[in-house]
Design a protein that fits this description.
Blueprint (H helix, E strand, L loop, with lengths): L3 E4 L4 E4 L7 E6 L10 H19 L3 E6 L6 H10 L3 H18 L15 H13 L3 E4 L2 E4 L36 E6 L14 E3 L1 H12 L4 E7 L3 H16 L4 E7 L2 E3 L2 E2 L10 H4 L5 H9 L7 E3 L1 H25 L10 H20 L4 H19 L6 H18 L12 H16 L3 H13 L2 E6 L2 E6 L1
Parallel strand pairs: 3-4, 3-9, 9-10, 11-13
Antiparallel strand pairs: 1-2, 5-6, 6-7, 7-8, 11-12, 14-15
Helix pairs in contact: 1-12, 2-3, 4-5, 5-6, 8-9, 9-11, 9-12, 10-11, 10-12, 11-12, 13-14
GO molecular function, one term: zinc ion binding
Enzyme class: ligase
Subunit structure: Monomer.
Length: 468
């Protein structure tokens, strides 16, 4: 089965075919960097990280772009509150964003373009739209003529005459039409600004992604993604301005993840129920957060509460224990003939094939996780045998790693603290210290491991460890 993706534009699952065989250009809208990101921002960060990982595991070369909006009304207000500059606010929260998503096991993007570093490209883009009659200036602001672009509304499947004005589309008497959106905003006194043919000002929100995507990819992206809330107006406006300029589809596949609710209520500032990733990482293991985000299909809503997080923590602990048991037994397993090796290999290959089939079906991560549960069960059953072989254990371990290279649910990659190799070395040192009756050093090592949440267990095959 080949990969199929649900395309928001067509409202259908379509077979994935990138513009250039073997290469994928993927652009995901990043944060406006005026504060710490919340768990709603974490969902696209984690999900599209999995999409990127799966594409790479399928043999594609992926160019993965995530932008930073580093100039905006919110940044200007934050800078005023803090008595600093917009640039300082942006630098602070870009650093926080990178730290948070790294903590969640999200791989670094190929590039993180920033608005303030692409003003010439944005100005050129707007000037071209103006020459083509799609943009007009009034009072130093420049607007896009939505009624000139016949397909405005095709992404969100709304009729232009029935559209409700969305977030950041401001009602302004200077507009020719209520749905027209701003491309360039005239500067107010004291605001950060750049010179332009229309006077001092700064870019509107929507234009930035179109201009930066065009610079680093060209006229057409393979995949454009983001949260469901961006579908209208942000992505709708991107489609309009980009396709008006180039005459080419802006993206071949549009992907949008669903919302996150908190205790069955919509997360919002007015309710004061937002949770930042910074806060969450202090009390929940990163692997459990990833599991929670992937436990429901990406297009469906998610409900965050203590129960769902507890379930996630239990599940990732089961994965970690299964993987850890295999690695522990491998240390003492014999390299003897195994007459059941072919049967083990066939069953494991079937599970990995099931995993890939579910991922090929529009990145169905809940069912893909089910395959990981099956692998744990098979591995645990195999470990009940009185004699296990290195060959079979390596088959199981390789399958764990194939799946986890995509999902990122095993500890080590996403957890802070000691690396597995460091823990193994400390356990060896502690064993030697006990043999030589160096009880002080043995106790010291035990305390170090305990502080890191490492639990030691005596087994017939020797001491093994696991994370709490």
């Amino acid at each position: 089965m080949s990969l199929h993706i649900y395309n928001t534009m067509t409202r259908e699952k379509e077979e994935f075919e990138p513009l250039v065989p073997g290469k994928v250009n993927m652009y995901v809208c990043g944060p406006t960097v005026y504060d710490y990101i919340h768990i709603g921002n974490a969902r696209p960060a984690i999900f599209f990280d999995v999409v990127r990982r799966y594409l790479e595991s399928s043999g594609y070369e992926v160019n993965f772009l995530v932008n930073f909006t580093d100039v905006d009304d919110k940044l200007i207000r934050k800078a005023e509150q803090l008595g600093t500059t917009v640039q300082d606010v942006a630098e602070r929260f870009i650093a926080a964003f990178k730290e948070n998503i790294a903590g969640l096991g999200v791989h670094e993007a190929s590039r993180n373009p920033r608005v303030t570093e692409h003003i010439p490209e944005i100005l050129s883009f707007i000037e071209e739209l103006e020459r083509k009659g799609y943009a007009y200036e009034n009072g130093g602001d420049v607007y896009f003529r939505t009624n000139k672009f016949a397909d405005y509304g095709k992404l969100s499947h709304q009729n232009i005459d029935e559209l409700q004005l969305g977030i950041r589309i401001e009602v302004d008497e200077r507009k020719e039409n209520g749905q027209d959106f701003v491309l360039w905003k005239a500067a107010k006194p004291g605001e950060i600004a750049w010179d332009s043919p229309w006077g001092s000002g700064r870019p509107g929100w929507h234009i930035e992604c179109s201009a930066m995507a065009r610079k680093y990819v060209g006229d057409t992206l393979d995949i454009h993604g983001g949260g469901q809330d961006l579908q209208f107006p942000h992505h709708e406006c991107e489609v309009a301005q980009s396709e008006a300029l180039t005459g080419q589809p802006f993206a071949r596949y549009w992907m949008h993840n669903g919302y996150i609710n908190i205790n069955n209520e919509k997360m919002s500032k007015s309710l004061g129920n937002g949770i930042t990733v910074n806060e969450l990482l202090k009390r929940v293991k990163p692997a459990a957060i990833r599991y929670f985000m992937l436990s429901s299909h990406y297009r469906n809503p998610l409900n965050f509460n203590d129960e769902t997080i507890a379930q996630a923590e239990n599940s990732v602990e089961r994965f970690a224990n299964g993987y850890g048991n295999l690695k522990h037994r491998l240390q003492v397993a014999g390299d003897v003939a195994d007459e059941d090796l072919d049967a083990v290999e066939e069953r494991v290959e079937t599970i990995v094939a099931q995993f890939r089939a579910k991922m090929d079906d529009d990145f169905n991560t809940p069912d893909a996780i089910t395959a990981l549960f099956e692998l744990v069960s098979e591995a645990n059953q195999y470990l009940q045998r009185p004699v296990v072989t290195a060959q079979a254990l390596n088959i199981f371990l390789a399958a764990f790693e194939v799946i986890d290279d995509v999902l990122g649910l095993l500890p080590g990659e996403t957890e802070d603290g000691l690396l597995d190799e460091e823990i193994d070395a400390l356990i060896v040192e502690r064993t030697e210290a006990r043999k030589s009756k160096n009880w002080a050093r043995a106790d010291e090592i035990r305390d170090v491991l305990a502080e890191q949440g490492i639990v030691l267990e005596d087994t017939p095959q020797g001491i093994r460890w696991k994370r709490k």
